[in-house]
């Protein structure tokens, strides 16, 4: 039972981290209807830039804001150069454009900073929490706890931002209907710029956390692929969906790895979330919290 | 002037429904085939073409064309975006390998076809979600294929004949006592297979199967209402597309690489083939060939260019930067094509033909 709890908690905590990446997708999709495949590349870019700046001698507190500036610039440029000319195109076209963007950003990050693995130290130790280990004999990493704390705080902030502030409401209006939003005087280009900036910020946080956990390397982009089943499960348009989906994926993937893995040879973490999400889709095509899909001719 | 169909009349149904109704197209295709089947072999015999041009350019170009053709059937004609192309190629390659290995005296072509059929069966299974979901939900779901198949081939030793490293060495290509072992003969083998399958695809997309795919692509609800069965049509598209990818995968293993491992069929390869389809032209048979040529030649061209710049400017770029630049150029090109010419190189070719129709007059 203890072991089960340990695995479950570990899974839930890493699920929060998945949710953090998934959040970046949801933000952009909600506001502009673009499924931004490049979110993973942005996470990689953010982590690599911060690590590179730290290696160049800057302190983390200076490097992170500088990276933030770079991320916002990247987001704004993407919006201007890639998405604006593609306005009103089919969503699959936009999706493919962001796949192109993925390659570009990955190449750009490596062209600037090189392809070596870098380490990133946030000053949080990755050791089991002593108190929990002594009292309940469950080993939970301190780092995971702090990371999920940060993620939870970020999600709460975004939820408030979306529901309470003027910009947040404008974002939701744009998400509902571009033309209606335009007609009541919401500046569309402006809003999209903000969304890409916020997505860049989320990517930065995710990149810092994942980068310091697993090392800053190309494999970071695969974390983003892990976020896709989270999205399918939770629904593309729902912030709470991303969180719940992340928790489900995180927990089930760890449990499956531990309990089912030995039966089939291990390493099933890579595809299990996808198959889970797929089976779920067969029952509920719009995801847990997604808007019901209504189709008309 | 050059490309004018005025005066070419079609008096019978047979004439009306031929593949290349315009005389210039017929001449063009005969010329291309003549160059591919006769001209290039002659040049090779005369010593103008090295083995390198076959192993590094012509053979991969043809194999990727076939894979792109497969994906184009699914994405371009039936409108189902897939990111699992490489997985279907892997199924084709490993299934063919096992048929050759385990059945005594298996003819290679039959093994390829059986490999393709295995890929088609896998395609049908993983195409099932397309009945409920669409768009990028489906694209994300096809990633499941990609990861699951590669994992499966790595973990289950039987598929790789319990090779410790997971690498398989493809058997020799033998037909009627002749062994295709030189780069040149492998090229001819691949060329024949690709031509036959391209002809088949061309015919498929202009008959009722292809039209039902396009109806589903353009609006699946409407297609269903007027009587197309979405299940049959979509699964058929998945099956045919996977068959093409499977055969391409088998050729990839047998005629191009020789030794392959499951990891060789990774997500990167899937993306590369998707790029071929986008750049070449979504929903165009000819476009698959254009796209493949483009993606195969681009890295070679970039390398030459970077070397040239290095030597002429006298600077030494750090190693590895050329691959980063390659990624950037790939990405930028994709975006460029989607913005400027969403129908790809095939559309440029059409525009060129229209210009030729008028040339040398302005109107």
Description:
- The complex is a heterodimer of chains A (297) and B (363).
- Chain A is mainly α and 297 residues long.
- Chain A contains 12 helices and no strands.
- The mean pLDDT of chain A is 81.
- With 363 residues, chain B is an all-alpha fold.
- Chain B is 71% helix and 3% strand.
- Chain B contains 14 helices and 4 strands.
- A two-stranded antiparallel ribbon of chain B has the order 1-4. In chain B, strands 2-3 form a two-stranded antiparallel ribbon.
- In chain B, helix 5 crosses helix 10.
- The mean pLDDT of chain B is 86.
Number of helices of chain B: 14
Oligomer: heterodimer
CATH fold group of chain A: ABC transporter involved in vitamin B12 uptake, BtuC
As residue ranges, the low-confidence spans of chain A are none
H-E string of chain A: HHHHHHHHHHHH
CATH architecture of chain A: Orthogonal Bundle
The residue-averaged pLDDT of chain A reads 81
- Low-confidence runs of chain B: none
Fraction in beta strands of chain A:
under 5%
Count of strand segments of chain A: 0
Distance between the termini of chain A: 53 Å
Side by side, the strands of the main sheet of chain B go: 1-4
Rg over CA atoms of chain B? 21 Å
**Percentage of residues in helical conformation of chain A:** over 70%
Q: Which class best fits the helix and strand makeup of chain B? A: mainly alpha
Topology:
The complex is a heterodimer of chains A (297) and B (363).
Chain A: H1 2-32, H2 39-55, H3 60-83, H4 91-113, H5 130-135, H6 142-164, H7 166-176, H8 178-183, H9 188-214, H10 220-234, H11 239-264, H12 272-283
Helix pairs in contact in A: 1-6, 1-7, 1-9, 1-10, 1-11, 2-3, 2-4, 2-9, 2-10, 3-9, 6-7, 6-9, 7-9, 10-11, 10-12, 11-12
Chain B: H1 13-16, H2 23-46, H3 51-77, H4 85-102, H5 108-127, H6 136-155, E1 168-169, E2 173-175, E3 178-180, H7 183-205, H8 208-218, H9 220-225, H10 230-257, E4 259-260, H11 267-280, H12 285-313, H13 321-340, H14 344-358
Antiparallel strand pairs in B: 1-4, 2-3
């Amino acid at each position: 039972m203890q072991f089960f709890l340990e695995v479950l908690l570990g899974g839930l905590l890493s699920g929060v981290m998945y949710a953090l990446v998934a959040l970046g997708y949801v933000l952009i999709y909600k506001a502009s209807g673009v499924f931004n495949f490049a979110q993973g590349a942005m996470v990689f870019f953010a982590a690599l830039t911060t690590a590179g700046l730290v290696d160049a001698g800057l302190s983390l507190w200076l490097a992170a804001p500088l990276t933030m500036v770079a991320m916002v610039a990247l987001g704004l440029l993407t919006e201007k150069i890639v998405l604006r000319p593609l306005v009103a195109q089919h969503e699959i076209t936009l999706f493919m454009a962001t796949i192109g963007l993925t390659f570009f950003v990955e190449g750009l990050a490596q062209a600037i900073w090189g392809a070596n693995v870098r380490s990133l130290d946030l000053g949080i130790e990755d050791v089991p929490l002593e108190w929990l280990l002594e009292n309940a004999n469950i080993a939970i990493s301190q780092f995971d706890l702090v990371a999920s704390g940060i993620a939870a705080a970020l999600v709460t902030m975004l939820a408030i931002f979306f529901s309470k502030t003027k910009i947040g409401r404008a974002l939701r209006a744009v998400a509902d209907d571009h033309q209606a939003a335009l007609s009541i005087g919401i500046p569309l280009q402006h809003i999209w710029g903000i969304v890409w900036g916020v997505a860049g910020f989320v990517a930065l946080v995710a990149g810092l956390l994942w980068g310091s956990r697993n090392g800053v390397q190309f494999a970071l982009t695969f974390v983003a692929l892990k976020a896709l089943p989270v999205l399918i499960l939770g629904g593309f348009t729902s912030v709470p969906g991303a969180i719940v989906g992340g928790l489900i994926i995180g927990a089930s993937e760890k449990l499956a790895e531990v309990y089912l893995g030995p039966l089939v040879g291990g390493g099933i973490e890579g595809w299990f979330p996808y198959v889970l999400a797929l089976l779920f889709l067969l029952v509920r095509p719009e995801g847990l919290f997604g808007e019901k899909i209504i189709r008309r001719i | 002037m050059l490309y004018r169909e005025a005066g070419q009349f079609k008096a019978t149904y047979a004439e009306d429904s031929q593949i290349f109704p315009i005389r210039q197209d017929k001449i063009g295709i005969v010329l291309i085939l003549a160059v591919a089947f006769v001209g290039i072999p002659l040049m090779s015999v005369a010593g103008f073409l090295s083995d390198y041009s076959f192993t590094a350019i012509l053979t991969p170009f043809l194999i990727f064309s076939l894979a792109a053709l497969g994906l184009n059937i699914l994405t371009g004609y039936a409108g189902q975006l897939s990111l699992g192309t490489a997985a279907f190629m892997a199924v084709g390659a490993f299934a063919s390998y096992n048929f050759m290995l385990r059945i005594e005296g298996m003819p290679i072509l039959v093994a390829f076809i059986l490999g393709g059929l295995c890929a088609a069966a896998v395609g049908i299974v993983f195409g099932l979600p397309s009945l409920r979901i669409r768009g990028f939900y489906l694209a994300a779901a096809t990633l499941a294929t990609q990861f699951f198949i590669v994992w499966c081939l790595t973990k289950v030793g039987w598929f790789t004949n319990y090779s410790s490293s997971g690498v398989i060495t493809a058997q020799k290509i033998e037909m009627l006592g002749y062994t295709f072992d030189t780069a040149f003969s492998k090229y001819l083998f691949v060329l024949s297979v690709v031509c036959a399958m391209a002809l088949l695809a061309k015919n498929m997309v202009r008959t009722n199967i292809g039209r039902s795919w396009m109806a589903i692509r353009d609006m699946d609800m409407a297609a269903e209402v007027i009587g197309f069965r979405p299940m049959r049509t979509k699964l058929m598209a998945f099956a045919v597309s996977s068959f093409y990818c499977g055969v391409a995968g088998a050729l990839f293993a047998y005629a191009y690489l020789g030794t392959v491992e499951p990891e060789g069929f990774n997500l990167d390869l899937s993306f590369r083939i998707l790029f071929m389809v986008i750049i070449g032209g979504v929903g165009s048979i000819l476009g698959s060939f254009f796209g493949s040529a483009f993606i195969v030649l681009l890295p070679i061209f970039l390398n030459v260019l970077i070397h040239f710049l290095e030597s002429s400017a006298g600077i030494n770029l750090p190693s590895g930067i050329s691959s980063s630049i390659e990624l950037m150029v790939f990405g930028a090109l994709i975006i460029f094509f989607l913005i400027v010419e969403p129908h790809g190189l095939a559309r440029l070719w059409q525009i060129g033909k229209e210009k030729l129709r008028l040339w040398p007059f302005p109107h």
